[in-house]
Amino acid sequence: MKYIVLLFALCAVCTQFASADTLTLTGTGSNQTNGVYTYPYYLSLDGSPSTDMMCLSFNNEITQGETWNVIPTAVTGNLDKEAAWLYADAKSTPANDINDQLAAWSLFASNVPMTAGSDTQLAAAIASINTETQAFYSQFTIYVPVGDPSAAGYPQTFISEAPEPWPLLMLGSGLLVLWGSRKLKVQHN
Q: Where are the domains of the chain?
């Protein structure tokens, strides 16, 4: 019986990882500049409750309710690290939201309408590479769309806090309970 439970738990976890990750735009905040919404954007990852994310693609457009496949990636290169710092700053200092968003867009596009405030935030993000640790950057995930980026209607790249590894924690807890119950049974015999 316990092997059936273990097999069921393993299948449930494997199914979770086998499916493609999807993002769905569920809403935007009220911040705008030049008629374009800026951070925060609210998105659902694989149907989970919506969370705030920062857009990194200035030249692509999406609409509320749109869903697309993404590949979650770690923050590794300098541009990714600068984007992570800008997202963290926007999240912790709402007065910088628009400037942080413009600076994040400017990392990946050359046609972003910058302001004095966004130039200041960009300089701070660049300087942060020398002060932040890898532990700081590991808190974030970049969601890169799957497909052809030159195609019309190509979705956007977003950055957010890294999701919690609940499926692995549940599997580990279940295996620990099974091991403990077996050990108790052996001790009683």
A: 2-180
